[in-house]
Automatic annotation (TrEMBL):
Pathway: One-carbon metabolism; tetrahydrofolate interconversion
Catalytic reaction annotation: (6R)-5,10-methenyltetrahydrofolate + H2O = (6R)-10-formyltetrahydrofolate + H(+); (6R)-5,10-methylene-5,6,7,8-tetrahydrofolate + NADP(+) = (6R)-5,10-methenyltetrahydrofolate + NADPH
HAMAP family the record matches: THF_DHG_CYH (MF_01576)
CDD domains: NAD_bind_m-THF_DH_Cyclohyd
Name by which UniProt lists this protein: Bifunctional protein FolD
Keywords: Amino-acid biosynthesis, Histidine biosynthesis, Hydrolase, Methionine biosynthesis, Multifunctional enzyme, NADP, One-carbon metabolism, Oxidoreductase, Purine biosynthesis
Gene Ontology terms, MF aspect: methenyltetrahydrofolate cyclohydrolase activity; methylenetetrahydrofolate dehydrogenase (NADP+) activity
GO biological process, one term: purine nucleotide biosynthetic process
UniProt lineage: Bacteria, Bacillati, Actinomycetota, Actinomycetes, Geodermatophilales
Gene transcribed to yield this protein: folD
């Protein structure tokens, strides 16, 4: 069998066009264009690249780029003060604190300054709590991008057995909760899981977010299963994921490539969250 390949770039483009349309509609209806405040602290080159592409995507969708940059040695209280300023600014619909922050800063404490309704990364304790309780809130971008990929490829989730490898706050845990919200039967695997391959072989939908190159081979995949690879590693042969793509594509029914799978969806969902945040804020008349 050769798996159907999920084209994440195409789906991301579709989502970004829908967001751009939503922005235009909001403005046409007398609203204000959503503003995204990306906050970068320091000069980490990888973070600079990520932030630049988020800012570009934001402008392309018709949103306002409200980027802020702080020096790498900024004291905690000054970084906190900037976040407080953005939190109070009605032109700011969404705030994204680019992680990781420099080592001397307490990132957790900084995240708490972001109000839940502006937390477009879905990373604050408040939004994690809303997700855990199944209540409406802004969801983390990478796992909600995975759900979007599955939905747009017609992968059934209700009653399906979903296995998530990884339990990080950023990906694994919210991924499992989103799948549960969609009525999948969910198993979470992690570094202490006994016989990982046996657990994975039970999956109709396997989402791999362990951060380990080539962790999942064909022996861990049920024939015909859907395999979503969240991993991304830079190696001699370019970018690769947590899944042994060539071997697994022979067994799986549907698979995401790396690059061009989950990756592009993260920014698309960030834009979708920013539009949602702006709509909620403007409809409740808080701006
Ligand atoms: P990410 O941000 O991509 O989710 P992290 O590095 O923060 O990745 O977390 C890695 C996750 O993967 C952890 O939850 C860990 O338990 C899980 N993990 C690490 N190694 C293995 C392994 N060998 N088998 C299964 N899960 C693993």
């Amino acid at each position: 069998m050769t798996a159907e390949i999920i084209d994440g770039r195409a789906v991301a483009q579709q989502v970004r066009e829908e967001v751009a349309k939503g922005v235009a509609e909001l403005v046409a209806a007398g609203g204000t264009a959503p503003g995204l405040a990306t906050v970068l602290i320091g000069d980490d080159p990888a973070s600079e690249v990520y932030v630049r592409s988020k800012r570009r995507a934001c402008v392309a969708a018709g949103m306002v780029d409200l980027h802020r940059h702080l020096p790498g040695d900024v004291p905690q209280h000054e970084a906190a003060a900037l976040l407080d300023e953005l939190a109070a600014d009605p032109a700011v619909s969404g705030i994204l604190l680019q992680l990781p922050t420099p080592g001397h800063l307490d990132a957790e404490a900084l995240l708490t300054r972001i109000p839940a309704e502006k937390d477009v990364d879905g990373l604050t304790t408040a939004n994690a709590g809303l997700l855990a309780q199944g209540r409406p809130g802004l969801r983390p971008c990478t796992p909600s991008g995975v759900i979007e990929l599955l939905d747009r490829h017609g992968v059934p989730l209700s009653g399906a057995h979903a296995v998530v490898i990884g339990r990080s706050v950023l990906v694994g845990k919210p991924m499992a909760q989103l799948l549960l919200e969609r009525n999948a039967t969910v198993t979470i695997c992690h570094s202490r899981t006994r016989d990982l391959a046996a657990e994975c072989r039970r999956a109709d939908v396997l989402v791999v977010a362990a951060g380990i190159p080539s962790l999942v081979g064909a022996d861990a995949v049920k024939p015909g299963a859907t395999v979503i690879d969240v991993g991304i590693h830079r190696g001699e042969h370019g970018l690769t994921g947590d899944v042994q793509y060539d071997a697994v594509a022979e067994v799986a029914g549907t698979i995401t490539p790396v690059p061009g799978g989950v990756g592009p969806m993260t920014i698309a969902m960030l834009l979708a969250n920013t539009l949602t945040a702006a709509r909620v804020q403007q409809s409740t008349g808080r701006r």
